[in-house]
Amino acid sequence: MKSREQEYREIFMSEALEYYDAMSQHISELERNPQDQPSLNELFRLMHNLKSNSRAMGFTEIGEVAHHMETIFGLIRDKQRDFSGSLAKVLFSGVDTLGTMIRAIGEEKPLPDVTMLLDNLDKLVRGEEPELADDDLSDEDANRKLELSDLVYIQIKKLDHLLNLVGELIIDRDRILTLSKEIGNTALQNTAAHLFRITDELQYSVMDARLVNVGSLLNKFPRVVRDVATAEHKQVELTLSGQDIQIDRNILQIITDALLHLVRNAVAHGIETPDERVKAGKPAEGQLRLSAQTERDDVLIQVTDDGKGINVEQVRRKAVERGLVSKQVAKTLDEDAVRAFLFEPGFSMAKEVTEISGRGVGLDVVKLAIDSLGGQLRVDSKLGEGTTFTLVLPTSIAVKGALLFELDDRSYAIPLMHTDSVVSLMSEQLHIVGGMLMAGIQGENVPVVSLKHLLHGEGPMQPVVRAQVQGRHDIIIIDYNNRKLGLIVDRFLRQQDIVIKPMSKPLDTIELFGGVTLLGSGQVCLVLDVPALTRLFLARRP
User: Fold this and answer.
1) pTM tops 0.85
2) Residue 387: pLDDT above 90?
3) How far apart are CA 408 and CA 419, in angstroms?
């Protein structure tokens, strides 16, 4: 497997060779027409990009030549030099030298001595005549081999289509594997096992091709933070880390607006003004950190500020005012449950409307974006010290881990992203509080409900009585928005990766299901939508 450094080196080589080819084309056009402004502008841009990329990769010699060349093209562009005579010859020589240097790096050979070239470029800047070598072409310069890049740029929609085809292939693969076991033919089983390995490798190869660095998004935020801080009259220092963590490009696209909202909120709501910070014993300049890291199969993106934190009691009062919870129930909620109200539609703690905040577009928009990916949004805060929002994201949205279970002789799937644990409990391990089933799970009291009743019932759920909970129960503990809920099912089946397909009309209007998948048996399996299930339970609880 290639190291990250090798991948970066290959990308640099690919782009650098493209830059060299484009430079050769544009400088030839400039020779035919010294007034060709588009070619001149493009040469200046290419030199600037090559300089920046080379220095970022540590190839300082290439960066130095490109920097000197960029300066000359800048002078030509500003009408301070003419592209003619010895100046044109030195620039042609410089482009050729850059090509030689790029190829040398790709072949891991020593770089040529560029002292004379740099001296000549410096002389041209000063308006002096350069020292030209023999005008005849050297043996090396004399129909030079033409090279093509080892990398190919592919439109994301082509990769999307390819991944969809792989998903269809995986469904058929599982079907073939099941049939081979049913038939009991050894040769067919061996072929099916080989097909399984090949499709697995194909799936991960396609998924790998769609990965991009999180930095491609994070690196856009310094300007955002600067602009928002200026508008809010605040001083904020932004720190970025984990830019080389990789994630599916489509996931990064979907969370762009959500991350922008969180960063703007951190500056507008979280970090105090310089005067407020000084009074609180803090430095006048606030700290904001955007970071990415991996955790098992997930990617975690965190937005952390050292601001005033979330005042839980204010949120509690606001929730009561908004009618989201009764005053009596609000008093019993722990801090995590109270902070969950921040994700309710239209919920805002802004005291005034500005260009940044207070317009009723709250964290619910962020939550919906994360939910659509099968991810999670966590919030941790300490009053007076700061707040951290954590986006828990799958590496890919094409294939998801899921827990399969049975209910009324039908198979269902529930995404592992929202599955906390599975337990089998006897009736005496369940207790009834206020007409609701409760179970002690890992030191927590978790409400438990029959999934059958939740899916098929209407109106408020009837209070549970002891006679309804006899025997052993298989329970899936789901976790959404800092709320845990136990779902009683008929039987656990297994854990496996599934390809989720959207539901067709009119079934796509049923919120409780996030899609369908086809099992190896050929059976259509509904995939439960955990956020929708949690909301339904909260609306129907007694």
Assistant:
1) no
2) yes
3) 21
